[in-house]
Description:
Elements: E1 3-7, E2 22-28, H1 38-51, E3 56-62, H2 77-88, E4 98-104, H3 106-109, E5 120-121, H4 139-146, H5 158-168, E6 175-180, H6 196-205, E7 211-216, H7 236-240, H8 242-251, E8 254-257, H9 263-267, E9 273-277, H10 288-295, E10 310-314, H11 319-335, H12 347-365, H13 371-385, H14 394-400, H15 408-420
Amino acid sequence: MAFKLQYQMESPQKFSYEMKKVLKCYYDLDVSPCSFDFFHFLMAAELNRIHRKCDEIALIFVSGANCGYRNDRIRTHEQNDMFFKNVLWQGPHLLESCKSILWIDRESEIINFDKDSDLIFPRGYRLEAPNQNLDYAALGIVTAFVRREKPAFLVAPNYARGFVKQFLENFSKKKIITLTTRELSREENGTRTINFREWEKFFDSLNKDQYQVLVIRDTSSAFLPNKLFEDIPEINVASTHLHFRMALYDSAFLNFFKNNGPLAPAFYSKANCVWFNEFDDDICALSRAWYEVNYGMNEGSSFPMTTKNKILFWGKENQSRIASCIDKMNDIYNSGESLSLNDFSSHKNFLYSINASIRYTFFNIRHGALPEDIALFQLLRVMVSKGHIQMDDPLKMLAESKEIQIPNETLNQIANYDRMQSGSAF
């Protein structure tokens, strides 16, 4: 039987006994990692909740076979357990629509699982046979980006924002700049490691009366005796407390990252962020192929479903590039479009994103079609008619696919959805 470990509700005075339409979102730790990729899943779940006009989300963690987690060649059980309790369990509190969080045991819950419910995410999820989770790899985010959906945001809880407000009173109303570092021993080639000398030069160049730099170190290094930069405060509580970290990002003038985990929730928030990134084909998750297949990205692209105050700076950081981001962020703020959705950077970025969205939609549609699938197909037809892309009819691709078997009733369902919506995808 499910054990409800926690219930989140910041405004108890708004509680009512009216029936709520709840989307049950399963993060299955047998097929999903204990990593910051969880936030791609969480944002995809929120967009799915909006599609289905649900009132709230119930986030359900399902224990994996390996002492609660999946078999993992990168992390030990102790590291997975620490990460789950410190990040994944706290993460849903950043999503205002998530009202309940559960941890369940697979074997004891199979008998109670409502496999016929339409209000399940990911689509087609089954406790007894969890399928591949494409949503932690951000394919659902890419598909929403192709459809140009309205962005959703992660928000730190009120208590954390209050703590950060008190904390920042120590810095005399200076503009806060944060630097979040990655310090893992397995990073042998340094692609995701900061260039210490260039950051020192940038820090030295700042007007100390106007700006205050704060360093947020890797969680595993938060309490080491030696500081990274001699005169720069290190905020240990932000390294170990997700809600404080997110509230600090939101209160800062500018937040800098290399390619590290915490940038995922930060880039889904309203905070002003800069991410210095470069490809590294020796590391799977940094390779050109990974970015193309999972994120629809090429060099120069923005991250999908992020807003204009999220700058992805391609190439190595140096003092002048870092400093230029201050003026860039000021320009974005003055434009009044900070929270407008980023654009596709190139035709190649657009094509890669379409390929990723088709892969994601075809994977999901095996378990039934939804109106957002038809919205994608109709968009693709418009793009074909205008000569922006060249591709076969989506329904024809589905019907003729040898890799994905689509039941005839689903093909009929697609046609019915199409008739209910304006235009025709087929």
